[in-house]
Amino acid sequence: MKHKLKGNIETRRIWLDEKELLPDESQKIMNHSPNGFMWGYGGSGPAQLALAIMLKIKGSADGYQDFKWNIIAKIPKVDFNIEFEL
What we know:
It is built from 3 helices and 4 strands. By secondary structure, it is an alpha+beta fold. The protein has a 4-stranded antiparallel β-sheet with strand order 3-2-1-4, with no helix packed on it. The longest helix is centred in the middle third of the chain and has 15 residues, at 44-58. The radius of gyration is 11 Å and the shape is globular.
């Protein structure tokens, strides 16, 4: 299934399938980034984003580090609007 992911670099806000995604729930599982989401590299903000996406879509954290490296880390550090499949 294809999913849409949109991000705003200035606010670091993320929308998954047109609904805003917040870091709170994923931070309860693993608090990689108290400052929330980021993308474009392999650090803590992208890990938090990947974890939140996997929890929302799959209901589990399984594979979130791979998802971070394969998708999130490769998104340029600018506003973005992409589609991806899991």
